[in-house]
Specification:
Blueprint: E1 8-9, E2 12-13, H1 33-58, H2 67-88, H3 98-118, H4 124-153, H5 158-165, H6 168-174, H7 176-189, H8 197-218, H9 238-253, H10 259-263, H11 266-287, H12 289-294, H13 301-326, H14 328-352, H15 355-370, H16 374-383, H17 389-415, H18 421-441, H19 444-457
Amino acid sequence: MVFEEGFHYGKQKVGNAKGGIFMNQSQVKGFGTRGIILIITLFLGFGTFQVFTNFPLNILADFYGGSTTVAMLLTIGTLAGVVTQIILSRFVGNIKSIKKVASVFAVIAIICAWLVAALPFYMTGLWYVFYLGVNYTVTLYVLFFLSIIAGQWFPRRKGTIMGIATIAYPVCNAVIGFFATAVYKPMETGVSDSPAIFKSFLPFLILATIGVILFLTLVTDYPEQCGAYRDNDKSFTPEMAQKMLEQEIEDKRTTVWTTAHIFTNRDFWCASVVCGLILMCAVGTMTQSSTIIGSFPALNYTIIMMIIAVCGAVGSWLLGVIDTAIGTKKSMIICVFLMVIAGVLGVAACRTGVGVLIIISLALVGIFMGASSNYTVSVSVQYWRREDFASVFAGINPVANIFNAAAPTVVAMILYSAIGITGVFLLITIAGIIGVVLMLLFSPKHIKAVDDKYREAAGKPLDDALVGRK
C-alpha cells in the first residue's frame, strides 16, 4: 500500500519501508477490548465448526446410517461451501461488508445446528438436510468470512490470534469422550432406549449461539469502524486510521491479484496444498479417533483425548507465536515435520501394538490440528499486500478446504480397507513429506517479483512493501 508523502504510521513513514508497513512495537500491547471479543468470537466459531461437523460423524454415525454415509454428507456439505468460496473469490474485493454477508450464513448455521441436535434420530431424511446445511453454512461463516475479518483486524499478528482461536479444535476434541458418555448414558442405564442427543449437545448449542450473537452485535469488518486500531497499535491517530481504511477499501477493489493471476501462481499452489494436507490429516484422523484408539484395548479413550487436547492447545498457541515471531513459512515447515514424525510413530504403533507410540503420535496430530486453520489466514496476509489479502485468501482457503472436505471420506475408506489403521498413518507420513517439499519450494521473493509484474502492467507504482517478508 502506498500513502501520500508525509503520511506516517506511528513514528515511521509508511510506503517504501522495507518489509511493508511497520508497527511501533512499543505501542502494540494486548489485543484491545474489541480485539478480545473478536478472538472469543473466532474461538466459539471454530468450536461450532468442530462440534457440529465432527461429533455427529465420530460419535453418532450409527444412528444415521453409519460412518460412510455421514462422512459423505460432511464431504458434500463442505465441498458445496468450497465451490461457493471459489465463486465468491472472483469479486470478494468488491463486497462492501463481509460482515453483512457472513451474518446471513451465521444465522442459518446456528438454526441448522439446533435442528441437528433437536430432531429425533429416527427422522433420518430430515436430519440429513440440516446436517448438510450446517456443514455448508458453518464452513462459509467460520472458515471463510470470519477468517477474512480476522486478517483485516490483525494483519501482522494474525498468527498469534489465530493460534489462540484455533485452540477450540483440541478443546472440543477433549470433551468428545464426555459427550459420548452423556449421549449413551440413558441407554446404558436402562432409563431410555433412545440416546440423549439434544441434552448432550445443549452446552455447545448455547456457546455457539453466544458466539453468533457476539458476531452480530460487536464485531465489525474493520477495527476502525468501532474505534479500535489494526493490530491494536496505539501509535495511530483516528485520522490516520480512517485514511488507511479508505485507501485499503479502494485498493481491494482494484487489486492486481485477480482470480486468474492467483490460480496460475506457483507459490499460491504450494501454500494451498500444504494448508490442505495439514487440514486433511488433522480432520480426517480426529473424525475416526474413537476407532483408532479403540484398536488399542489398554488405552482409555477419554484420557487420550484429554492428552490430545492439551497438546493441541499448546501447539496451536506455540505455532501461532512462532508464525508471528519468525515467519509463516518457517512455522509451516515445523508443522509438516511434525506430521512426518506423527505418521512414522503411528505406523510403528500399529505394527508393534505399543500404546505409548500411538499416544505420542496422536498428541502430535493434536498439535498440528490446533494449527490447521491458522495458516490459510497467515500465509495470505503475510506474503501478499494487505489490500490483496481478501482475494488471495478467497483462493487459498477453498483449495485447502477441498482436502478438508474429502478428509472424513478418504480416511474412512482407508480405515475400513485391508490396510486399516496403518494406512491412516502412512497417509499422514506421505502428506508430511510432500508438505516439506512444497514449503521449501515456496518463495516470498518470487511472489514479490510476480506482484511487481502485475502492478507495472496495471500502471500501479512499484515499492518495497513485499521486501523482506519472513
